[in-house]
Design brief:
mainly alpha, 8 helices
Amino acid sequence: MKCREAKETLDRRRALASAEADALALHLRACPHCAAVARTRRLTRLLLQALAADDEPSPYFMARLRARLGEAAAPPVASRFGIRLLVPTLASLTLMLASGAYLLSPPPPSPVLSFLDSPAGGSETSSFLGIPRPTHDQILASILEAEERTP
């Protein structure tokens, strides 16, 4: 028997015929690699069987658990009235704080002015074409003129 045949025989999950079992045993005595594979598979199978056998807890598990839970006093839970009062109160407080923060925050700058102050505000194009950059007053004057023209 060759190593490939021995591994195929080990992969099968059925009982071996006596001739096949003898040939496999003879090969495993001669080949240390296949013997190690067979030993590993046998130990793995035994471990899985042992784990499957211990799938139920001890019959006294629940009694011991209840005794331990009875010994450890549970912390007092807030009354339902307290919870019903606390949640809306906290929600209202959060809403008031958020509204106050929104109302007291400074207004954002004009988008036109912030764009012109940014690096992408046309300074590269203006300098490339040789056009001087307009001042804030010139920009505001042009915006006011455009608003006056629209009906």
